[in-house]
Amino acid sequence: MKKCLTVLLAVSLIFLPSLPSKAVGVREIPEHVLLIVWDGTGRDAIKLLMEKNDLPNLKSLTEEGALVAIDIRRVTRTVPGITEIVTGYPPEVTGIHDSKTKAPIPKGLTLFERLKKEFGPNGIVTFAVVGSKGSTHDINRSGGLFYNALDSIDKMVSPLKTQDEIGAETLSAIETYHNQRFFFFVHFHEPDEAGHRHGGGSKEYYEGILDADRWLGKIMEKLKSVGIIDKTLIYITADHGYNMGMTDHPDAPFIFLATNDTTVMRRGERTDIAPTILARFGIPVETLQPALEGSPLSEFEKTKPYW
Ligand SMILES: [Zn+2]
Description:
Layout: H1 2-15, E1 32-38, H2 43-51, H3 56-62, E2 66-71, H4 78-87, H5 91-94, H6 111-119, E3 125-131, H7 137-140, E4 155-160, H8 163-177, E5 182-188, H9 190-198, H10 203-225, E6 232-237, E7 254-259, E8 268-269, H11 273-280
Parallel strand pairs: 1-5, 1-6, 2-8, 3-4, 3-5
Antiparallel strand pairs: 2-7, 6-7
Bound molecules: zinc ion (ZN).
The site of zinc ion has 6 residues, from loops.
């Protein structure tokens, strides 16, 4: 009888449809935020895979939230890309102009530092998991991109070689910190790596994206199992797109933002992502110094007409 029940339970777990989650309320400060980068994932690839129904977890994430276009005005490289995503500032402010720049982000500008300042050193757990290869080395090495922010990052795991390792570290961090307010930065590098090896648009390139989507599914399942999915906002974006048929991304400015944040309502630029997250945490972005270039994707920009 006991065995029978166990089998029944196992079967029901396998076939249990993933339950729609209740999103974090519009005026609610989120308890937990994950900012996930799918390195080198262009908007064209996302569109193609979504049309084929091949990204079930991205689809489920955005059902209540949004999938919006993000454009890049400057170089389509990883190091300046990640810099803009985690700071909201352009190279004119950070000095990070391309992936050859060997300097850290100036002190105080990253989301890690802004959030530690807002909530206090013990008021929020900050965590970064970064893939290993190519120019992303520059994020991790001594004196690398996040060097000045290390005081504000409670745990940084890098460099990691595979998305399985990156995903497993993320699940383990959710398990460890789910009772605390947290901000995680997670960098899945495989679409970019596969693109450099086999070309943008190759089978391997798409497989890197499908694998990142499978990990998104596991992350959402974990958030459900520890009971915090309703208090968690997830933002997925890319540092740059990919030039299809090439093994590089010199001119790949069309990317995306996928989220369960119900306040996101417009397309934008790479420098709008950090202000969106800061605003959701209740930080008055218009008072930050130096002045941010972008603005939250929950607000239509007042200074620029959209048409
Ligand atoms: Zn990249």
